């Protein structure tokens, strides 16, 4: 239907790779922040508690506030940080795969609950110093909170998300307070020192610290878990593909990139036109919503020929991590977890196969996978 298609509501669906890239990287496209929401005729549409809470997080901020908060985090997962984290990720992966191996001795196992949901929370949890006994609670409220980030959430979904949002605020506000009272040599303590120097108002500094810590945590969980599940599903569903990669481990990084291209964990991202403009030949008025469709962009045959084929040796490109000032903060960490887990699984489970297809939660934006049956 075209690179830019009018949506049934006040917005546009952007499907072409180049058009999506232009929106993600262009300075004249902004996140739908509070200022934009307040200018809308139907401003009450964004009054839900969970929606307003997420509008305050890094992903929904624009300059100069976005610039300030992002700089305060530094380059979260630069090369040296990834090198320091690698032994921890390897240790977590090995322990979780031990559990998977135990279950597989008795037949089938659910890969999602055993491994793919657990590796991200153990990785980010140990990095931030979260108590391991809190991991199940954090996973549960994260699953419920993301309903607020859907394109068209229902009132019942917003109610579930509102409760989860209150729980997230209580948990991470308390975490910041405890870390301030008992500093450590860790990431969160470093952020506290940074914001104490930037913001003289202690209450405002702690509010920003709560939002940053909460956002970094939940952003590291849902999407990475889906990536890990899709990776195992796509590589084991076709006979011979798993064995082929096992004999050619030098292509593991390429395999991870093809999974990211083929089935991105997030399918939709929204931006706002900062001024009247033209996108792929279509006039777009200021303040109009445009919805970047990652899956469609990644499957644009002009960028990736024969896009419906899963091809590890494709050497193509994708927009799954976004672009521009909002490029995914955790991209390097997600790829570290994926390639570490995949390398170990190929070595330990040479005959792994999928016995039931992945089951997806009924969502448009976040492609959460709730189960994937595997066996030997």
TrEMBL record:
The keyword Heme applies. Pfam families: p450. Keywords: Heme, Iron, Metal-binding, Monooxygenase, Oxidoreductase. Transmembrane segments: none annotated. PROSITE patterns: CYTOCHROME_P450 (PS00086). PANTHER family: CYTOCHROME P450 YJIB-RELATED (PTHR46696:SF1), P450, PUTATIVE (EUROFUNG)-RELATED (PTHR46696). This is Cytochrome P450. It comes from Streptomyces rhizosphaericola.
